Amino acid sequence: MKKMxxxxxxxxxxxxxxxxxxxxxSEEVQVVATASSNYQIKELIQKLAPDVLLLDLQSQASxxxxxxEAHAAKPDLHxxxxxxxxxxxxxxxxxxxxxxxxxxxxxxxxxMISGLxxxxxxxxxxxxxxxxxxxxxxxxxGVNGRLEHPLSPREVDVLCCVAQxxxxxxxxxxxxxxxxxxxxxKANIMNKLNMRSQIELARYAIRNGFVxx
Length: 213
Known about the structure:
Helix content is 49%, strand content 14%. By secondary structure, the chain is of the alpha/beta class. It has 2 domains: 4-126, Rossmann fold, CATH 3.40.50; 131-207, Winged helix-like DNA-binding domain superfamily/Winged helix DNA-binding domain (Arc Repressor Mutant, subunit A, Orthogonal Bundle). The chain has a 6-stranded parallel β-sheet with strand order 2-1-3-4-5-6, sandwiched between helices. It is elongated. It starts with a strand and ends in a 6-residue tail after the last helix. The model has no long low-confidence stretch (mean pLDDT 83).
C-alpha cells in the first residue's frame, strides 16, 4: 500500500505538531511538513508535492486563496479541511474550495487516517458531528439529573458546546441562535457559576459529567 504524503497547515502550533506526531506514526502516512497559514503554501507544495493537504478551516489566512494557490501548484492535490467540530454547514465551504473531506482535528488517529485514505483514493469524507446534540440529550434525559446547578436548559446546551472547544460562531450555528445570544448565555453561566474563563467552564462541565472525555 502506497504511503500518502501529507502537508499539515494549522495556525495552532500545539494542534499542528500534535497531528504531525500522531499521524506520522502510521504506516499509511508520511507527514512531509507542517506550517501555519501565513507560510507560502504554494511554494511549499511545489517543493514537496504532497498527496494530501490537511487545512484548518479556521485559519487566519483565507482558505479560499490558499486552496486556489494549492491547486495551482499541484492540480491533483487532495484537500481535507479540519475544524474543532466538522459541522454540516462547513461542507458547503469545503465543496466551494474543492476540498474532498471535512473532519475534526481531535478525532481518533485511526478515524482520521481512514478518512484521509478515502480521500487519497479518490473518494470523499464528510464527517457530520452529532456529539453535542447527543450529550445535551443525555443530560436532559437525566444522566446528570442528580447534579444540582443553577443553569437553564439552554445554558446547559451552551456549556456543553464550550466544553467541546466550539467557537461562539460554531455554537450559534449548532444551536440556531445568534452569536450575541451565545455571548449572553456564556456571561450568564460565568456569573452563575462564579467563573472567569472558558477553560474554567470546560473543566466544570467535564468534572461534573456534562460531557464525556
